[in-house]
Structure formats: C-alpha cells, structure tokens
C-alpha cells in the first residue's frame, strides 16, 4: 500500500517565524562582492585602494603633504598582511571605532565635497573582510600629533553593525597619522595590470604631491617620489543646487534645517537661491514661505521642486572642484610614463544631472614608455612593436582599475574615431590616455566605486576633451611619421651611394670620397632632412600653461 505523503502548507503564520531583521554589516558580509571584494587579486588591490584613498583624503582635508607607506607580507598560501601608515590628521579615541568598525559611518557621506571616498564603507568593509577570512581584528595606531598616540584592536559586531574595541592603550610617544595592520586570507599578490603595484603607480601619477613607499611581498622597496610640493587646496563642501534635488531631498533637508522659515531654509541650505528666486518661488506655490520648514508636507515640497524646474538658476559654482592642473599632470606623466610626447588639458567645469559640478582632465602620452607592452601584440605602428594603448581612469584622483567596460571613460575613448587623428589602430599604438573625472559627487555605477555612470553631459564632455587632445597629438604623430619615412628613404639612397660614386669616379676621374660627400649632400637637400627639419618637429609640441 502506498503511504500518504503529508503536505506542509506554508501559511503567512509559518513564514512569520522566519521573519528576521539584519544589519547592514550582515548584508555586506553576505554580499562582499558588492564592495569589490571578490577575486583573489582584485580583493587585495581593493583593500589597498580603500586604505590609500582614505589616507589621501585625510591629508588633503588637513592640508598636509601626504607620505604613505604600504607594506604587504605573505604570511602563507593566499594569506597576506597589509600595514599602511600615513602622516595625516589621525583619528581620535572617540572616532576610531566608528570610522574603522562600523559600516556606513564616516565624515564624507553627508557632505557634497570632492573626495575619493563618499560612502563610509571602505575601511570598515576591510575590517569586516579581515574578520571574515582570518577571524582576526585589525590593529590600529593613531595620533593627532598632540599628546600621546594610542593603539587598539578593532572588529565589527555584525549583528549590530557596531565597533568592538579591544586593548585600548596609550603609547609612550607622539605620532601624527594613522597606522592600520590587517590580515586577509583568500587573496593573492600579483604584479599585473590589476595588482597593487600598478594601482600605486597610477595613484602617484594623479597625486604628484604624494610620496608613496611600497614594500612588496617579495621584499622590494619601491618609492614614488612627489614631483611637486604644492598641497592641493582642501576640498570645500558644496550645497545642493536646486536643479538637481528631488522632493525627498527637500523634505529630508527641511526637517533637519536650523532655519526657522522655509524661505531662509531655501536661501541658506541650497546654492544659488537669493531674494529674487524666493519671490519667484512664492508666486508658484500655494503656501506661505514663512512657514516652519519642519512642518513642510510632501505635496508642499513637491510644489517647491516644480517651482525649481520653472526658474532659471545660475549653474552651480565650481568653487569646490580641485583639478590637478595641466602642468602637474604633464610633469607626472613625464616622470612616471616617460613618453616622447605629452599633451594635457584641464577643461572648464560643467554640470551633470542638473545639479552636480564636474570637470574633466586629460593627458595623452605618446611614444617612449607609453602604452602597455604586450608579448603577442602584432603592432602595426612603425617602430613600436608589441605596444598597445593604456587607458588610465581616475575619479577624484583615485585610479579605477576594474569594471572598465562599464565606465563612461572607456566608452568615451572607444566612441572616438581615432583614425581621423592619425591613429590607425587604437589597440596597437604606444599611447597612454590619462583621464581624471572630478566632482563633488561621482556617479559610480556600484558600491565598489570602479566605474562612472555614462550620464549624457559626462559623455559629451569626455568626448569633446578627448577629441581636443587627439587633434594635438595627431599633429605630432604625423610630423614624426613623415620624418621616419624621409629617414628610410635617406638610408635607401645612402646604401647605393658608394657604388654610384665608384662608377662616377671611374668615368669622371674625380675623387671617390668627394663624390660620396656630394651625393650625400644632394640626398639630404632633396629630402629636406637637415637639422632645421628636426627642429620643426620639436616646435610642434604645443606650449602649455605653467611651462
Ligand atoms: N587614514 C585616515 N585618516 C583619518 N581619518 C580616516 C582615515 N581613514 C578613514 N578615516 C575616517 O574614517 C571614515 C570611514 O572611512 P571609510 O573608508 O569606511 O569611508 P569613506 O572614506 O567615508 O567612504 P568610502 O566608503 O567611499 O571609502 C572616513 O570618512 C574618515 O572620516
Ligand atoms: Mg574610504
């Protein structure tokens, strides 16, 4: 006889027993790939990225010339330790726990400011990863330069997303900066285009004011010296521009403002709103702008946003943007990429999504050590066998090594018809294209912060800037190509000169050596290949600001 199978009916009551809350730390513990913490090589590079960007941000805000030391030690198979030390402002005993042991906590998320970090998740994500893969807390030493430095260990309570601080103690010395030591398993060090060394090389190019010292797991010490002692002006927080805000933004801001009236809230907390705009907004909404902003309703906020759309505001100010500058990018590329030709361009600021100012900087380096050397690449460019284009992407001066295909910068580079600029095959050319995108809010496509969204205004500006640089580079390349062709012709003629001179000497009875000299002069004259011609090529290098 067949046994009857009892069916369990899943009712709402049954499911209710499964209903649980979870913290953001538990969420990211399960979804670490969202933070870019996946792939053995990528994970280690991402860890370096998170710590280095934090050190640079902290130094920049404090007006300090950064000196950052990064040491990687191989502790076992796929088991590494990172030690990073900076000379920044450091963290205090009160803030160190939240900064490094709580996800979604930090000093950047709530401010519209040009910084490398913006989410409050980078360093704390690394603490969580160390804990998840080795069971160990991170070790920290911090000091503000005044009084004694302190040391402690930090981990995260994932259930509560709260820091756990152990062994807090004062040290018997002064120190200014932050030192973090963390261990990770399931990661790998590689000296590839996606590895920590390449990441640091690019960081050095975009941050010529930083000194970066790297000790690799092989025991090598690599120093990227600063090429300028100019400290970038500390970034300036910006207020939101009315053209870029949503109803939800207005309501949230209104409920937290210090202002007593909606009118003063709009004037104080947004950019570009003055008395004239207030008078215009008052005519477009059905309530009195003297109202308490904390009592603003959703539909009233909606009326404000609709009014914003009808009023013409001046574009957001770009005061808060801090470009690297043409001369500094040039110096940096010359020192690290060592090309034969460089052209750099810093474009004026623009605005995307109606409210966020941004700026694009490009550097094109050609020849010399520019481009990436490949073994199997069948290079077609004359004397540059086995070299292909290298696209260096940066957001607020931080290198972007991953998710290239998804990024506005890569898309813009590939959308250009390079043939028009004398570059027949972009994949086979000794070219380094450096692009730095800066903004008070970078529209990343994900929490891993590796690709910039292809907003229309951003794409348009990137393409324009790239084309301007390509045009300048094309002039150099075509002049160089013409010179190479002439030299090839000269060599061909020179090959036959001794034979011709010999024959002529027999016929005319003139001195063979004199004839050789004459014939050589004839060839050079015909090809116009004397020194002035070479000078002309050099003259084609455009003069740039700051030179
Ligand atoms: N080296 C450092 N020196 C001083 N403060 C630091 C340093 N590293 C981190 N912090 C502080 O810790 C906070 C949290 O860092 P974390 O990397 O988690 O987030 P973030 O940098 O704000 O944003 P993102 O998640 O985009 O990196 C920072 O906002 C900063 O205030
Ligand atoms: Mg960070």
Strand content: 15-25%
Structural class: alpha+beta
Q: Rg to the nearest angstrom?
A: 30 Å
- The first-to-last residue Cα distance is 96 Å
Q: Looking at the structure, what is the overall shape? A: globular
Oligomeric status: single chain
pLDDT averaged residue by residue: 89
Q: How would you write the strand order of the largest sheet?
A: 5-4-3-6-2-1-7-8
Estimate nothing, just give the exact number of structural domains. Answer: 4
Using the 3D structure, state the CATH architecture of the largest domain.
2-Layer Sandwich
Biggest sheet features = 8 strands, mixed
Find the CATH topology of the largest domain: Heat Shock Protein 90
Description:
With 547 residues, this protein is of the alpha+beta class. It has 15 helices and 16 strands. A hairpin with a 4-residue loop joins β4 and β5. α12 packs across α13 (456-508). Residues 376-383 and 531-542 have low confidence and may be disordered. Bound molecules: adenosine-5'-triphosphate (ATP) and magnesium ion (MG).
